[in-house]
Amino acid sequence: MVEQKNDFTEWYLQTVQKAELMSYSPVRGSMIFRPDGFEIWEHIQEEFNKYLRSEDIRNAYFPMLIPKHFFMKEADHIEGFAPELPWVTEVGDEKLEEPLALRPTSETMIGAAFSDWINSYRDLPYEINQWANVFRWEKKTLPFLRTSEFLWQEGHTAHIDEEDARRRTLNVLDEYTRLCEEFLAIPVYKGEKTPSERFAGAVDTYSIEAMMQDGKAVQAGTSHYMGTKFAEAFDITYLNKENKHVHAHTTSWGVSTRLIGSLIMTHGDEHGLVLPPTVAAHQVVLMPVGPWKKNPAIMEKLDEIYAELKKLGIRVRLDDSDNSPGYKFNEWELKGACVRIECGPRDLENGHAMLKVRDLADKEKVAFDDLIATIQTHLAEMTPRLLATAKARNKENEHFHINTLDELKAHIETCKKEDKPTGFVLIGWDGTDETEAKIKEETGFTTRNIPFDVPMEKATDLITGEPAKHTLWIARAY
């Protein structure tokens, strides 16, 4: 495999295929989720569904085909998505009376339904979530991170007033932060998007941004306060306590299978996947080593360990293939197995097994009597340790003392010469689209978000030197 440090993107492409997470599809820009890849998504779904249930938000499903006139009702929305919308225009030899879009998102379809379902203040808040596929015809694609068809969850809610809607918007952002950091061990930067980066039709968009090992950003999740714009477009009104018909305030929010790409780019190493046990398809792999076929007691012991782990709900595999131990070690490291247990004739004789944790360098000798408890301890400790490692790496690639465009360009050149990531740069911004566009044009850096917890205030705009209105993070991004 290509080494990470030599070509990070090529390393990523080789890893996701050799680890059997995905395959390319015959359709341009789309991909096939193989079982190990899809299982990661299933564990993310399971975890986020716990939050939904705790908040009494129920899952629903809406049609994939959306009539064109729905999009025309909200001008900013159609303008934002028009370049990447695929349309169905005919069935067989028959032209459709109205083109139907493959959904890029479901605000319009769900807005029309809310208009029918919501009548009184007693109906609010009305909150639902959908797990679905969406289509955006991407010109430049990368598996999991940017594909023409991808999987996601999209939450949609309607509220009695702005305060309640904004509470939900930010509450979901907090949950996305917890999901990424505590469950996926991906540290994120939480904040508000600039106007040019807002979701099409939103009043305000908030995001969590993740830094990959090569210093580039991935937008890991977004939550949008829509105001009454979609309510006005789709006539989502309710009778309030004063007996007046008023518009509801709506929100939408989503994370997607981009999280899988972020996971790989955050934790992977030269040997392949490094996955937190929370989502790894293979938490433990058991391997007989040495001349084990001549000693049936080895497999009997491993079968016993397998049954105990399985009973505890641990995702365990037993590799009794004829491949050499070295081949097996490499294969399961590539696939991101969290804990490897080896047992040979001498191990059995001495009452122990050898244990190797994926993200730790050394093997350890563990007595059979202590093995299950030791495995459980390692599985519990691995996710927080991966998060701490990623946070420490991020800190090394955060830059706070770049205050002019020339300094940013010099930073980029230095990183290129020293083969280092350009990382996240904290800058001052005057709040204009012109300076934001200039940064991108001159350096390829884009604004990530205006952080809620600003590490330090920047006084002047990076481009003009005029007083800054905001302090924000910029980075190159996927």
TrEMBL record:
Catalytic activity: tRNA(Pro) + L-proline + ATP = L-prolyl-tRNA(Pro) + AMP + diphosphate
HAMAP family xref list: Pro_tRNA_synth_type3
KW ATP-binding (keyword) present: yes
Principal subcellular localization: cytoplasm
Subcellular localization, as worded in the UniProt entry: Cytoplasm
Keywords of the record: Aminoacyl-tRNA synthetase, ATP-binding, Cytoplasm, Ligase, Nucleotide-binding, Protein biosynthesis
GO CC entries: aminoacyl-tRNA synthetase multienzyme complex; cytoplasm
Top class in the EC scheme: ligase
Protein task: Catalyzes the attachment of proline to tRNA(Pro) in a two-step reaction: proline is first activated by ATP to form Pro-AMP and then transferred to the acceptor end of tRNA(Pro).
Subunit structure comment from the entry: Homodimer.
SUPFAM superfamilies: C-terminal domain of ProRS (SSF64586), Class II aaRS ABD-related (SSF52954), Class II aaRS and biotin synthetases (SSF55681)
PROSITE patterns assigned to the protein according to its UniProt record, in alphabetical order: AA_TRNA_LIGASE_II
Pfam families: HGTP_anticodon, ProRS-C_1, tRNA-synt_2b
Domain-related comment: Consists of three domains: the N-terminal catalytic domain, the anticodon-binding domain and the C-terminal extension.
InterPro entries: aa-tRNA-synt_IIb, aa-tRNA-synth_II, aa-tRNA-synth_II/BPL/LPL, Anticodon-bd, Anticodon-bd_dom_sf, Pro-tRNA-ligase_IIa, Pro-tRNA-ligase_IIa_arc-type, Pro-tRNA_ligase_II_C
Single GO molecular function: ATP binding
The protein's name in its UniProt record: Proline--tRNA ligase
Family statement: Belongs to the class-II aminoacyl-tRNA synthetase family. ProS type 3 subfamily.
GO BP term, pick one: prolyl-tRNA aminoacylation
The EC number(s) this enzyme carries: 6.1.1.15
Keyword Protein biosynthesis attached: yes
All residue ranges annotated as the Aminoacyl-transfer RNA synthetases class-II family profile domain in the record: 28-276
